[in-house]
Amino acid sequence: MGKIVAVANQKGGVGKTTTAVNLSACVAALGKKVLIVDLDPQGNSTTGYGISKRSVEMGTYEVLIGEAEARSAIRKTDYRADVLPSNTRLAGAALELIDLPSRESRLRKGLASVQQDYDYIFIDCPPSLDLLTLNGLCACDSVLIPIQCEYYALEGLSELISTLKTVRRKYNSYLDIEGVVFTMYAGRYNLTLQVVEQVQKYFGDKVYQTTIPRTIRISEAPSYGQPINYYEPKGKGSEAYMDLAIEFVKRNRPRDPQPRRRHAVKKNKPETV
After folding, report:
1. Sign of CA dihedral 260, 83, 148, 206
2. I need a surface site. Which of 24, 241, 246, 256 has the fewest CB within 10 A?
3. How many angstroms separate the CA atoms of 19 and 26, rounded?
4. How far are the Cα atoms of 6, 52, 197, 202 from residue 110, in angstroms, in the given order?
């Protein structure tokens, strides 16, 4: 069974989608079978892999609503990773899910049929807490948290941890923190070092040693529909995300995902993170 990792942060602008796209592509470049699920109505993971949202007839929305099987909606790409894409209909999904049965676990159910086909499934969650994000957190084994090194990012992190505790208590008792990765990193600033110190005190060895620098090439790559390791293979951004992918795979090598349910939801586990 492939491990499902949600890339999530309630605060926008922290490099969440950038990390989801580039990390998934670099893990795939290491020879792993990878699927990225675009759960964000903005669809930036979809376009980041060179797929036009307007060309998507079946995607994440149709899987959530029950109009399509995940296997039939998944798109192959030129970058080794597969994509379950977003389309324009996903923007209204949060409202439509309200009246559907098992509304918080529909993505988990939809991915169950393809989970065995992949080593890793990455879910790019929206930068908000709604039913779409809740579906992502209920479907995953763990959460990878990108953090920009600034004061407001710490406030957003506090809110996210509170959310994860609630989700673990009510819906997904297996939910774990995969790790924390610093994005747009600039080590020459005192504020950066202060934020890093505070986060490391709280998360300890959950913090990735690899940091992602702020580079213009990382910002440019999505407009060309390419992950950074294809857009500029020998650049600093590509090297950083490849290092992150290597560290990610090494961290997961000693252990397999915990045996777990896909339809029944266990409750009442201690809400510690």
Report:
1. positive
2. 256
3. 10
4. 15, 23, 39, 34
CA–CA separation, 38 vs 187, rounded Å? 31
pLDDT of 262 strictly over 80? no
Neighbours of 49 (CB within 10 A): 25
pTM: 0.91
pLDDT tens for residues 33-53? 999 999 999 999 999 999 999
Confidence bin at 246 (pLDDT 50/70/90)? very high
* CB-based contact 139:107 (threshold 8 Å): yes
What single string gives the DSSP state of each residue in 54-85? GG-SSSHHHHHHTSS-HHHH-B--TTS-EEE-
The superfamily CATH assigns to domain 3-252 is P-loop containing nucleotide triphosphate hydrolases (3.40.50.300)
